């Protein structure tokens, strides 16, 4: 009983009940499939076992990364307890800079050695942090993670926790404001970052490619701006400061409108990969980048509320067609078609490798969650099957999968475990919420 009640808080079962009243009921045959799916129970148990062992992204990662923690924090809160999660989140705020900047991750100083440009904080002795500056999702990931923590625990006192003379509420505002101060393009009214593949953190100009420099090509994409609106929505649900509510409500409306105006490709019915700014594109004109479909950014845009129900359904059909043409395992396929070999100096981003067309359950399961949220239950169930099958077949949550379904990257990737666990719980709770 306590377990069910706890997860009702985690997933917002009241929201699912309200949603279900206006949406299609689950087909009786599908209800039976969900209830009797033995692999669901197996994967959930495996996920709980893995996430109970720590907070790093997975083996091969010494750091606690905020973009990863944000995707398994609900599960971690359940299996690791509130206090550990609270302290883990606080460490990110202890590394926040005066201008609101949030790092990617932190690590014990004695273990630091990956080649990042580390920074220290008097508030966090014994630790150092780093930031992949090509990204624009660290601040938004932290705000989202705090929201999920509070929804899971009811711990609203966390918002008034003092860190270096500022409350968490104030620091979340500062984090969002940092993006407007340092990553906002006035011409388009949207956030920018380095040119990367969809939600990725590798630019094409360098063999590693994680830091902005003079050779970077600034660009606007859907993922950064969708993450921003999701984080604003989360902050608006948390803060009691009326001036900030009015301010961020206005910003949210502007970002939402400008995203539709500038990034949506009405002809192709998808998002443009990039809007290039002062330096133009880093890619050769021998291929049409606008043909590339960004799966992860589209999942995130749906969560941000950017797409209509009909557009979500069309996006699902287009993604499944991309999977068919690529021969990929699931809609976790990052992009289709991939960027041609040689367009990224980092050799790990060859065609259908890593973020350039690898298959990531870490993002694919987020589409499952959005399909459930929008009452597309059959599509959600169809989408999750290959992801669950891969985990069971290879007995692990791998970071990503090759085009022929072989494991790659970290063999204990907590982000993948977290999003699959949440997706399955959403299926189970939807059964309860719908007659």
UniProtKB/TrEMBL annotation:
Q: Does the keyword Protein transport apply?
A: no
Q: Where is the signal peptide?
A: 1-22
Q: What keywords are annotated for this sequence in UniProt?
A: Signal
Q: Which SUPFAM superfamilies match?
A: Six-hairpin glycosidases
Checking InterPro entries in the record gives: 6-hairpin_glycosidase_sf, 6hp_glycosidase-like_sf
UniProt KW Metal-binding keyword: no
- Name of the protein this chain belongs to: Glycosyl hydrolase 36 catalytic domain-containing protein
């Amino acid at each position: 009983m306590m377990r069910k009640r706890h997860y009702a808080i985690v997933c917002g079962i009241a929201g699912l009940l309200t949603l279900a009243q206006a949406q299609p009921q689950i087909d009786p045959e599908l209800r039976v499939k969900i209830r009797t799916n033995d692999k669901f129970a197996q994967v959930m148990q495996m996920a709980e076992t893995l996430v109970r062992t720590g907070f790093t992204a997975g083996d091969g990662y010494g750091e606690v990364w905020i973009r990863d923690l944000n995707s398994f924090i609900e599960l971690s809160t359940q299996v690791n307890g509130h206090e550990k999660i609270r302290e883990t989140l606080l460490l990110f705020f202890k590394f926040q800079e005066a201008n609101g900047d949030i790092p990617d991750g932190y690590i014990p100083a004695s273990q630091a050695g990956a080649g990042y440009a580390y920074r220290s904080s008097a508030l966090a002795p014994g630790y150092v942090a780093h930031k992949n500056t090509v990204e624009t999702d660290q601040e938004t990931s932290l705000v989202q993670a705090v929201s999920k923590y509070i929804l899971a625990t009811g711990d609203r006192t966390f918002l008034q926790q003092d860190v270096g003379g500022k409350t968490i509420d104030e620091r979340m505002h500062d984090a969002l404001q940092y993006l407007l101060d340092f990553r906002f393009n006035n011409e388009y009214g949207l956030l920018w970052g380095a040119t990367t593949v969809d939600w990725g953190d590798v630019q094409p100009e360098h063999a590693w490619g994680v830091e902005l420099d003079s050779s970077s090509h600034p660009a606007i994409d859907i993922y950064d701006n969708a993450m921003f609106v999701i984080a604003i929505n989360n902050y608006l649900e948390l803060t009691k400061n009326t001036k900030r509510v009015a301010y961020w409500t206005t910003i949210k409306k502007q970002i939402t409108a400008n995203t539709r105006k500038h990034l949506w490709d009405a002809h192709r019915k998808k998002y443009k990969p990039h809007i290039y700014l002062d330096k133009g594109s880093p890619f050769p004109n021998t291929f049409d980048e606008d043909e590339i479909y960004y799966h992860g950014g589209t999942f995130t845009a749906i969560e941000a509320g950017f797409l209509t129900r009909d557009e979500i359904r069309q996006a699902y059909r287009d993604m499944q067609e991309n999977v068919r043409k690529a021969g990929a395992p699931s809609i976790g396929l990052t992009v289709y078609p991939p960027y041609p070999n040689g367009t990224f100096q980092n050799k790990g981003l060859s065609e259908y490798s890593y973020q350039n067309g690898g298959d990531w359950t870490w993002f694919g399961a987020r589409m499952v969650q959005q399909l459930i949220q929008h009452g597309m239950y059959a599509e959600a169930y169809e989408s999750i099957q290959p992801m669950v099958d891969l985990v069971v077949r290879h007995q692990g949550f791998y970071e990503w999968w090759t085009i022929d379904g072989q494991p790659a990257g970290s063999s204990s990737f907590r982000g993948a475990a977290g999003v699959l666990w949440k997706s399955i719980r959403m299926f189970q709770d939807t059964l309860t919420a719908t007659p």
